Amino acid sequence: MSTHAVTLRPRELRSHGAAVPPVLPGAGEAPHLWLVRTAEFRTRAREQAAAVLDRSERERAGRFRLPADRDTYLSAHLGLRLLLGAYLRTDPAEVALTRLPCPLCPEPHGRPAVEGNPVHFSLSHSDGLGLVAFAASPVGVDIERVPPPEVAEEVGRALHPRERDELRGYPPPERPGVFARTWARKEAYLKGLGTGLGRDASLDYVGTAAAPAAVPRWTISDVEVDEGRTAAAVAVRD
Questions:
Q1: What pTM was computed for the model?
Q2: Mapping DSSP to helix (H, G, I), strand (E, B) and coil, where does residue 93 land?
Q3: Most buried among 86, 115, 162, 220, using CB within 10 Å?
């Protein structure tokens, strides 16, 4: 277990000419983090989605009602495929994405994976931003916009009892940001486990303080993406 007080900074993936590290992270190395901005990728995503994304990705994109949400989804998934293609030295459109079995049931909705390849990665997107993580072991990443106070209050009731108590100890103006920070840590950890929110969010304590709490066999780190408006975190199994 470890407590990681350092806030990590992702590289920004550019629509053209991105420099990708030659190899995936090795054991004991920090995860590779990439930020995908919808404003940067919107045009390319619209042009290439039909050729690069698979059928399930295109179908899911079509279910978004708001064009902005659809663009963010398409941009994040195109960015993920470009990165996977570069790391795996293959055509992004040829990357066969799948889901591992869920630890809570036999259904295939666990961590995302590449068929026949042990690469560990995770993707999250929210309100114009996508965040992608690659690691040498199971990894989860989450990005959250700081919500309005009433949303932080309502959803905050789902946190671990200690986290709920801690949240009430912050001045009211700070609570939405603290809640977002805590929730991003929790979702990153649950994505790393492969359960997502199928596991009760109140079961695991990740803490509300500036440094994430120690979680057995995992390292959780905050990620700097858009200070003041967005919180993000990454969780890597030790």
A1: 0.93
A2: helix
A3: 220
7-50 tens-digit pLDDT: 899 999 988 865 567 789 999 899 999 999 999 999 999 999 99
Length of the chain: 238
The answer to whether the Cα torsion of 228, 185, 200, 165 is positive or negative is negative
- Name which of 86, 99, 88 is nearest 60 in CA terms: 99
Helix (H, G, I), strand (E, B) or coil at 237: strand
- Rounded distance, CA 176 to CA 183, Å? 10
- Give, in order, the Cα–Cα distances in Å from 177 to each of 7, 121, 152, 156: 15, 26, 9, 12
Q: 224, 148, 123, 142: which is closest to 183 by C-alpha?
A: 142
pLDDT digits (tens, 9 = 90+) for 118-140: 899 999 999 899 999 999 999 99
Residue 125 bridge partners (DSSP): 130
